Amino acid sequence: MLLLDGKIASQSVKQNLTEATKKLLEQGKRAPHLAAILTGNNGASETYVASKVKTCSEIGYKSTLIRLEETVEEQELLRKIIELNNDDSVDGILVQLPLPKHISEAKVINSINPDKDVDGFHPVSVGRMVQGLDTFIPATPYGIMLMLEHYNVETKGKHAVVIGRSNIVGRPMSILLSSNLPYGNCTVTICHSHTVNLKEITLQADIIIAALGRAEFVREDMVKEGATVIDVGITRVDDASAAKGYRIKGDVDFANVAKKASAISPVPGGVGPMTIAGLMKNTMDAYIRRNLSIE
Ligand code: GUN
């Protein structure tokens, strides 16, 4: 069984970006700059954003973290985004989701300049991805594609089953895996909460992408011998014996599924670090498009 180790795979991506940033600075240019907006006090979001900001500093990027109250008015958040759109020193803008209930995610995503949309959630970015044009790929699906590439997982002609149809992971993942890309060309089935006989479908999968957000949902009896299993889940499960009072669980029952899989990603240490690597690559791409292509 091959462990798809996101810590190792992300390291090589980050190493390349660190070297590229160093070269920019040696040429007297500025470093790429990511601006992140964090709204409210969602514990998981705090952790993710802290990790993104820390990785920026490791690579040599500039980052700006903008914190807004849970009660912030939608207009104020939109104003902040427009300010960042108009700030030439900012290459990438990220608004951490979920947002407070009174704020429209669609409106917020639509207000980001597509040239700075390093999350790849803007309809322009999504449309370009669907058409196979150069664009920003959402960080988690991008990270998974980078992981498949790092471990040279054969995808051509394989049956990939994606569980979950979110805009952040499942849907873009299904598009990328079915696209004519070096780690695409799969036949893809996308499953969701209304899928009938899910197990019959997952048992046909050469590749399973578990992205539904339910701890240890994918069990051994749902997986074909020799399948590749990618676990996107990050659920906090209460555990009084853990230092933080909770444990992080993936969407896959790792211990048992690993006995059948030919390759499997762990949680933590799998897709999570790859997501950050994907975001960092998008930030460098945004920088290059905005600054170097007009020289
Ligand atoms: N919330 C969960 N995943 C993501 C992500 O990739 N980007 C943003 N902005 N918010 C998220």
Based on the coordinates given, report the CATH architecture of the largest domain.
3-Layer(aba) Sandwich
- The assembly state of the depicted protein chains is single chain
CATH superfamily of the largest domain: NAD(P)-binding Rossmann-like Domain
CATH class of the largest domain: Alpha Beta
β-strand percent reads 15-25%
Distance between termini? 48 Å
**Shape, per Cα inertia axes:** globular
Instruction: Write out the strand line-up for the largest beta sheet, numbering strands in chain order.
Output: 1-11-8-7-5-6
Mean pLDDT: 97
> How many H/I helices?
10
Structural category is alpha/beta
Bound molecules: guanine
Estimate the helix proportion, in percent: 25-40%
C-alpha Rg, in Å?
A: 19 Å
Explain the overall architecture.
The chain has helices spanning 6-26, 43-59, 74-85, 105-111, 123-130, 139-150, 170-178, 198-202, 254-257, 271-292; strands at 2-3, 33-39, 62-68, 92-95, 159-163, 187-191, 207-210, 228-231, 235-238, 246-249, 263-264. It is of the alpha/beta class and 295 residues long. It folds into two domains: 28-115, Rossmann fold, CATH 3.40.50.10860; 139-271, Rossmann fold (3-Layer(aba) Sandwich). The strands form three sheets. Strands 1-11-8-7-5-6 form a six-stranded parallel sheet. A hairpin with a 7-residue loop joins strand 9 and strand 10. Helix 1 (6-26) packs parallel to helix 10 and helix 6 (139-150) crosses helix 10 (271-292). It is globular and about 55 Å long. The model has no long low-confidence stretch (mean pLDDT 97). The structure holds guanine. Guanine binds at residues 94-97, 119, 139-140, 168, 275. Guanine binds next to strand 4 and helix 6.
